[in-house]
Design goal:
Layout: E1 2-6, H1 11-22, E2 26-31, H2 38-48, E3 53-56, H3 62-71, E4 76-79, H4 86-91, H5 93-113, E5 118-124, H6 147-165, E6 170-176, E7 178-180, H7 199-207, E8 214-217, E9 229-230, E10 232-234, H8 235-250, E11 254-260, E12 266-267, H9 268-279, E13 285-288, E14 297-298, H10 303-309, H11 317-330
Helix pairs in contact: 1-2, 1-8, 3-5, 5-6, 7-11, 9-11
Bound molecules: nicotinamide-adenine-dinucleotide and uridine-5'-diphosphate-4-deoxy-4-fluoro-alpha-D-galactose.
Length: 343
Amino acid sequence: MSILITGGAGYIGSHTCVELLNAGYDIIVLDNFSNSSPESLNRVKELTDRDFKVYEVDLLDREKVELVFEENHIDAVIHFAGLKAVGESVSIPIYYYQNNITGTLVLLDIMKKYHVKNIVFSSSATVYGTHAKVPLVEDEILGATNPYGSTKLMIEQILKDVFIADSSWSIALLRYFNPIGAHVSGKIGEDPKGIPNNLMPYVTQVAAGKLDRLSVFGSDYPTHDGTGVRDYIHVMDLAIGHIKALEKVMNGTGVEAYNLGTGVGYSVLDLINAFEQATNIKIPYHITDRRPGDIATCYASPMKAKKELGWEAKKDINDMCRDAWNWQSNNPNGYKKEEIITI
Ligand code: NAD
Ligand code: UFG
């Protein structure tokens, strides 16, 4: 079976490519490398000893996307491609809507033309409204608080409408919680551009001595230690979730949302402690003001994915911290080659 992976060079995409190849799927990757490097895909090939086609194509470039469908037999699409930085989406909303929404519309229109009606979409826990109750269940009230979140919510709605119009589509909306960690080999991992926005890459860069100390955003939340609580999930568990969703999508029709989380919440201080224990490295931190837009607590009910996809997260917080550090320490500059100074 042949699967098109949009955004396959990115963090979650590259780990999912490894799992798909190891499970015997053929893959074709489409990415414009706006937030990734082709080197991640070289590493995927090394790790799996499998080859696959890589198209450097922007989803907004309709002609080129169409060429990918013309040149390949495609059974299903896993659609990771999108911009994902919440703060940036507030500053440059038009760019976010254009890239994420228009990119998805181009993809869906071409899928329809080529009778490819199976899709797994990267949604996010961010689609749950701020007043939703934890643990979050899939039919909780939805809402968005920033343009990035709005794009996820809108794409979910677009996909629901696509199914209403044509019930031969088969669609999984995967709502990821907080993916962290890396492949156990330390060959692939998260490679943020510039100073990381997210907690774990910030922590690993402090551990590596690239950043001085961590700012803990707020200690007055109504949580067990006052810091924000999230449902961290190992990226390899997430990757396996995509295989399970793909199996479901290939064996029926419909449109369903699934939470991919562990169901367990850890605070910022819990995560720092777990990291220190897993690595024996002290993380200097200080408490600062809350980050605007952050909520106190967010964790999943993963029961629907367990029941309907036969999936549940297996790795714990210690695995997540160990693997994140293994990736960071083996790749201090991410996928960038060491800079050589010539004189
Ligand atoms: P990432 O930025 O590492 O990967 C996204 C990939 O899409 C990148 O390789 C980028 O170059 C590519 N891309 C972006 N726009 C494109 C376009 N127009 N055409 C072709 N390629 C394009 O991000 P990730 O963490 O791997 O996330 C994957 C998906 O999961 C995204 O849709 C993201 O919004 C979603 N998601 C991520 C998280 C998270 O915390 N990482 C949480 C929830 C949802
Ligand atoms: N945090 C800090 N210091 C930092 C970074 C984060 O204290 O330097 C705290 C945050 O306040 C929050 C927790 O660590 O309490 C996690 O923050 P992240 O930025 O790692 O993750 P978020 O939960 O804010 O957001 C992530 C993704 C979003 C996605 C959301 C839900 O970045 O894109 O999960 O899936 F929408």
